[in-house]
Amino acid sequence: MGRKNGVPEFDETAPDSFDPANPYKDPVAMLEMREHIVREKWIDIEKAKILRDKLRWCYRIEGVNHLQRCRHLVRQYLDATRGIGWGKDGRHPSLHGPKVEEVESE
């Protein structure tokens, strides 16, 4: 009774059988979708934490010039933190974050 060598495997994509119009139709797919959303949120949160640590380091190293030299990190951090978290407003995760404007092509 030993453990398997290696990393446990899991799907990184959303389940195909999940129907957003009727989420309770397939309870297994609903739970898989919930796990997928939670996993993606944790990934986004951890990316924001890494950017925050880089920004702190930049502020400390650059001193009085941090406004010019760390501006790109501030923008990345603000973009990374927009729309992540555990809000209870009931919106779908795709509706969080900055609005993406579609470009009309001719």
Automatic annotation (TrEMBL):
**Membrane topology of this protein:** Peripheral membrane protein
Q: Where do the record's region annotations for Disordered lie?
A: 1-23, 86-106
Keyword tags: Electron transport, Membrane, Mitochondrion, Mitochondrion inner membrane, Respiratory chain, Transport
- Tell whether Transport is among the UniProt keywords: yes
Q: Which domain of life is it from?
A: Eukaryota
One annotated Gene Ontology cellular component of this protein: respiratory chain complex I
Q: What is its main location?
A: mitochondrion
Q: Which PANTHER family match?
A: NADH DEHYDROGENASE [UBIQUINONE] 1 BETA SUBCOMPLEX SUBUNIT 10, NADH-UBIQUINONE OXIDOREDUCTASE PDSW SUBUNIT
Q: What is this protein called?
A: NADH dehydrogenase [ubiquinone] 1 beta subcomplex subunit 10-B-like
The record lists the lineage as: Eukaryota, Viridiplantae, Streptophyta, Embryophyta, Tracheophyta
